[in-house]
Design a protein that fits this description.
single chain; alpha+beta; 6 strands; 13% strand
Length: 236
C-alpha cells in the first residue's frame, strides 16, 4: 500500500467521508505516465469532480480557459483573444451584487503559472500533491480543523467563500483552509448544500492524520460525556 493510499484510508475513516479526497499537484509539464485530459469542462473545479469519481489525469492551461475565474485563481491566464471574458464574468457578478470589484485584488492566486495541473483521488495520486481537497459534513470537518490546530498547520484565516477555487492557493501559502464553497462550484461538482470544503497542504497531510487520530478519539469520549451531562442536568 502506498503512503497516499494509507493516508486516504486513515482520513476517510476518521472523517467518515462519502467522497474521496482529491490530490492536486502543480507542475511545469505533464508528468511522464500521467494521462492528459481530453475533452472540455465548464469550470476549473469540474476537474475536482472527475478526480473524486476515480480519474487520474493532468490538465494544461488551455483546459481551464472556459472558466475565467478559475483561470485567474489557478494562474492560467486567458489568451489575448479571450482575455475580455474575465471582465465580462466579473461585470455580471458585480451587476447582480454578488461581488464588488474592490474585492478582486484580494482573491488568492497560485503563485507561479503552472504548465500542468495533476488531479487524482488521493490514494491513487501519481505525484506528491501540493494540496488535497476534502468534502464533508460540518461536524466531521470540525474534527479536521481541530486536528489542524493541534498539528500547528491551521491557517490564520476566516471561513472562506466565493470563489471556492481560491481555497487552493490560500492553502498553499497559509495552511489548512475551510471553505463554505460557492454556488458555481456546487453546480459543477454536485457538492451538496450540507457539505463544506477543507483544503490541506500536501506537505502537512501526514502530520494532520496523526493529530486527527487523537482528536477523533477525544471527541468520541467527549460526546459520551456531554450526553451524560445532558441527561443528568437538562430539565426539559
Amino acid at each position: 500500500m502506498s503512503e497516499w493510499s494509507d493516508l486516504e484510508q486513515r482520513l476517510q475513516g476518521a472523517l467518515r467521508l462519502t467522497r474521496r479526497p482529491v490530490a492536486v499537484a502543480y507542475r511545469d509539464a505533464v508528468p511522464d505516465g500521467v494521462a492528459r485530459f481530453a475533452g472540455s469542462e465548464p469550470s476549473s473545479c469540474s476537474f475536482w469532480r472527475l478526480a473524486d469519481e476515480g480519474r487520474v489525469f493532468a490538465t494544461v492551461p488551455a483546459d481551464h480557459y472556459n472558466c475565467p475565474i478559475g483561470s485567474y485563481t489557478q494562474n492560467t491566464p486567458l489568451p489575448a483573444e479571450r482575455a475580455a471574458e474575465l471582465d465580462q464574468v466579473l461585470g455580471l457578478m458585480t451587476e447582480i451584487g454578488y461581488v464588488r470589484m474592490e474585492e478582486v485584488p484580494g482573491i488568492p492566486r497560485v503563485p507561479t503559472p503552472p504548465g500542468a495541473i495533476v488531479y487524482a483521488p488521493l490514494g491513487e495520486t501519481p505525484v506528491a500533491p501540493d494540496v488535497v481537497l476534502f468534502v464533508g459534513r460540518p461536524g466531521r470537518l470540525m474534527l479536521l480543523q481541530e486536528a489542524a490546530m493541534r498539528a500547528g498547520v491551521a491557517a490564520a484565516l476566516p471561513l472562506l467563500g466565493r470563489p471556492t477555487c481560491m481555497a487552493l492557493p490560500a492553502a498553499l501559502t497559509s495552511g489548512v483552509i475551510v471553505s463554505a464553497g460557492c454556488v458555481g462550484n456546487r453546480v459543477y461538482t454536485d457538492v451538496g448544500e450540507d457539505e463544506l470544503y477543507a483544503v490541506v497542504p500536501g506537505k502537512d497531510l501526514a502530520r494532520l492524520a496523526d493529530a486527527l487520530d487523537e482528536i477523533a478519539a477525544a471527541n468520541a469520549t467527549l460526546a459520551d460525556y456531554h450526553q451524560q451531562r445532558r441527561q443528568q442536568l437538562a430539565s426539559e
